[in-house]
Write a structure and sequence with these properties.
alpha+beta, Chorismate synthase, AroC fold, homotetramer, 5-stranded antiparallel sheet
Chain lengths: 368, 368, 368, 368
């Protein structure tokens, strides 16, 4: 109830502050006998790691994961898997200046009101450092989904007003390679170049900028998602909205769909005679439904977009108020991302994997 | 886990098919000693009721709620409150034509795959008729919030591409009156007129159209929302995305915020010397945060928008596939809404009330 | 969190006061395509029904169940099943004398302290009338378990100090017949006769008496139960302890087991060469483990016992205190059971069925 | 759902195998601003620690707890508290002999059936080593309860057939001192002496023996516990039954109460004129209710008893079956307790503290 757990059957519980000893997660409900590829998990963490390029924060963390339980002879045992990522480069003294001052658009004030005892070093629990635990556990979920043939791909579709053209979602592995070949993680190389230029300029100005991430889940079996409250897209939406800095979520036709008329928007069913994609009985000609109808997956690509606001920490002085209610100033310092989306690609994929793994198990319980 | 419950401490569980005997809800966790104003509850239901105007479905339901438990001498007792709304005008024979045919962009196919036993009469559980249970229980949540001084206001901000100008959110009671003075439930009368014209044309063409609803929650105390996964906006997002036909959710600056830079987007704190709004210690000059920072309310207006796709049932024949995989045709008939947003205003408010009541109790448990 | 739900995947939520309009339950998570035998459900309710014999309360209730949702063409659809049992013979005026007086060993005082608004008519929510909802939903669980080949049998093993000898648990259907042939529901006819005499004498003296119920679950597959907190016997224990008047629970060797030494108590494994019972790979020579090892079923009979205190309502005047703290007297009147165990057999079986159905689904999710 | 979490609002999730790297726990929902006395936590762990006397296992563990998060400047922050206890003296090779053999009355077989991948070193997750995480988190709960004035006291009331006389529950601190003055942890010194003799003899014979623990919770406010399924004693029962080797639970009059008649068993209310105990409005003359009526605490002492079977590991050879179904023998070796109850006193108190802390928060949410 204190909100540090996510998922019902494939369930994670995270802990750890930005500047404490470690951040970590317990995965409870990972099925047994899944091969645990530690290199894969570390590679996922590396995509989220700070300091990976000139357009990310310069905090130095190796983000090396330690697994304390739940794995025996290279396979999951069905018991809880605890993963711990020690903090290495905290520099807590960077934060003494905000001990008694509320940074604009941060959680300093709301945490103070709520708890009355705030770990002011780097945002404590509200720091995006918490997401390292999501990526670690999401990597485990991905290993499970891989075994089921389910693929997930996300990339940066926009930075500020620079939108990437709609890329063709053919081979997701290939797209991942293209994405990983540029530091902004956009699958369209030309747009990636523009985005990097933009972010670099923003960084030099001591400012930050928002962006969007698009995601597709492929080969998801039909039938996942529970009707009414736990619709598949509602749980995906909650997952994404729980990521730091996210201000919007849309799936399928999204906000644009609200401007359409029914006769254009309806996805016509056709028999899937050629068995493409895969073994689906039916497919739809268009996919405004984003692979989900009535909250339940229909076997088509699940597609959604996530909007991130600009990071609140800027390298500029800002007026604010102190905890005693006096006018104050916050100075621009510390190590932060000029734009969060390149590193957030790994987080979006991780959260998507956690939702799908959870709903796969939920559906299996009743209808498996 | 089968997903028919919502909320943790103020928790609802709904039941009922579109064409079964009744739809209903158990509210478990409503505090004791709340005055239950039955007329208010019925008035809320009337806003969602079918057949209320020429631009809604002509199904005739009085939607009269029966309360079976949990209330004694006009007050809640702290025990579960069961509310039942009988179905009166089912006309199930209207649906025999879709027994073996999958309607485009409905849940017929996904339910069939998932459960293998589909109540095909009117969409069964995937029908928007289920939302009558949300409005009934949301009305109870509203009565609780009223006692706490918290106000909720939603209205239709767009139909198709007709967007209402940003209305000034001064007196929410007054705005509610303006909204209720037109059948499309837009708080801007001039835009309302245009919207009604548009929907009426769409209806005559046998088509449907999407739209958007904007919502504001006022006087919410600072401190509601749990960090990490159960951020206040993440739970609001899930609540909204669980409503039939919703394809998008954004709060505060939303999708537009992803195009902004940090120095514009940051909400500067100032001391609230004049005690306006109310007793807040601080307020912010702008409100791109939408009243929520780090997932926790900061006392400012909570603002969000919800995007609805066009209703899938159109009065036109459409190609589709039968349950045996043959090409088939779905004929346009039945009684449906040309545009769902006028009736959905009550649902959006109800779900918002349920989320806030739940988080109020959650915060009270730990920090009350 | 307000505690009116039970189970995780096969989950029930109950509502209703003793003297309100109705008592009922929503079953959320019953798999689809289970044949619903309404006569069986009603027959289960009849075993718990008041007024069934001279040794039960004389309140007249037909306990006729109405199903409002979740069943289509005689089968479950996978959606919530709402069951309502109207109250017919409330006689609320019987209770005006306890409006301001706390009955000894009832929940009057604790409800008053907790909620500050008590439905004093007949104990409100703390009345054993609530268990009718458990029996109705448990009957549904039994129908599911039947399909899986799992059997449940309980009987009255003791009334006061009259203990039935250990009966041989051969054919459970036969034992059920013997049990149903006497009004106290003991599977040993000679002991049943003694028990009935005892209860009848107690009843005439205006007093009440406690008793015990023994239960066996047969053909439960090995593997049910989750290690650590949700051990199968821990969930059975909670289920039983949640029944009105229960003061103790033991499984397998129980309290007596705490007096034994390990070399006697250990259940030696042997290969199950003859395939008896059924298809188990192993069986144990003794069964002090009660069919559960490490919290997980091992395929042997699951056995447990439940202790019920004497009913608190007696037909004698008792000293007490009024809600204003004055000395007062409670008069012996109303319609109550001299001994609760004959009717509680159906409740014990229902709760056992709910636990097993839930754990069957939980195990299926991960290991099915 | 995989059952490694306990509690709703004060919620723990544990991880770790007997012979893995570490055992640990995340406490989610501990209120902020509680002073964390690390010495107290360690002292609690020391009471459960192996190797503490001649009548406990000789495994050497310092059980030193590391806190990774959730505490800032000596106080809880309201965020998750992760505690890790490294395993130091695993000697996994001790267990190679049971890799393919099922030990009688252990969980080897059931884990194998359930998960198909068993960490056979020392029982893995089914080892009582898991309970170190319960004691660590229970110590935190105790610190919270202390602040609220609530006291918990448990002691060994029986070993085998040696029962301690009913001790007078006057000063619980004094009783704790007496209990800690003997290695069997019985509050009656004469009986303690007998118990120690008995266990020592059993140990020398390579056997084990069961026992019972009695517990009292004092100064619990009236109003804790939720009616129907989450009755306070039902949650206490589940908590206790989830501890390794527990086969029975009873509260108040318990199993003996089932042999009583109502007129003796009813607890008569009297006004608490002298304000003793404390500020209760009412008290009862007797306390067969064990401090709980209708599932809700009434302010009197909460009393219950827990029965433990003899430990399954004995220093004698036993016949069994191998994982391939062949007859086999298990040799008596390893380091184990001849009687588990002296060390389990700390576990019983810890679980009781967790239940009360959880229900305190639950009640505060609704009625605080």
């Amino acid at each position: 109830m204190a909100g540090n757990s996510f998922g019902q059957l494939f369930r994670i519980t995270t802990f750890g502050e930005s500047h404490g000893a470690a951040v970590g997660v317990i995965v409870d409900g990972c099925p047994s006998n899944i091969d645990v590829d530690l290199e894969f998990i570390q590679a996922e963490l590396d995509k989220r790691r700070p300091g990976q390029s000139k357009i990310t924060t310069q905090r130095k963390e190796t983000d090396t994961v330690q697994i304390l339980s739940g794995i025996f002879e290279g396979k999951t045992t069905g018991t809880p898997i605890a993963m711990v990522i020690p903090n290495e480069d905290q520099r807590s003294k960077d934060y003494s200046h905000i001990k008694d001052t509320y940074r604009p658009s941060h959680a300093d004030y709301t945490y103070d009101v709520k708890y009355g005892n705030r770990d002011y070093r780097g945002g404590g629990r509200s720091s995006a450092r918490e997401t390292v635990a999501r990526v670690a556990s999401g990597a485990l979920a991905k290993l499970y989904l891989k075994q089921l043939g389910i693929e997930i791909f996300a990339h940066v579709s926009a930075v500020g007003t620079i939108d990437s053209p709609n890329i063709e979602l053919t081979d997701l592995n290939e797209l991942t390679e293209i994405r990983e070949s540029n530091i902004v993680r956009c699958a369209d190389p030309a747009t990636a170049h523009e985005m990097i230029e933009l972010i670099d300029g923003i960084r030099k100005a001591g400012d930050t900028i928002g962006g969007k991430i698009a995601c597709v889940i492929r080969n998801c079996p039909a039938g996942l998602g529970e009707p009414v409250f736990d619709k598949l897209h509602a749980d995906l939406g909650k997952a994404m909205l729980s990521i730091n800095a996210v201000h919007g979520f849309e799936y399928g036709s999204g906000f644009l769909g609200s401007e359409m008329i029914g006769s254009e928007h309806n996805d016509i069913f056709v028999a899937n005679n050629k068995g493409e994609p895969r073994d689906l009985k039916l497919k739809t000609v268009t996919n405004f439904s984003g692979g989900i109808q009535g909250g339940i997956s229909n076997g088509m690509d699940i597609t959604f977009k996530v909007a991130f606001k600009p990071v609140a920490t800027i390298m500029q002085n800002q007026a604010t108020v102190s905890s005693s209610g006096e006018a104050a100033e916050v100075f621009g310092k510390g190590r932060h991302d000029p734009c969060v989306v390149p590193r957030a690609v790994a987080i979006v994929e991780a959260m998507a994997a956690l939702v799908i793994a959870d709903h796969f198990l939920r559906n299996k319980a009743y209808n498996g």
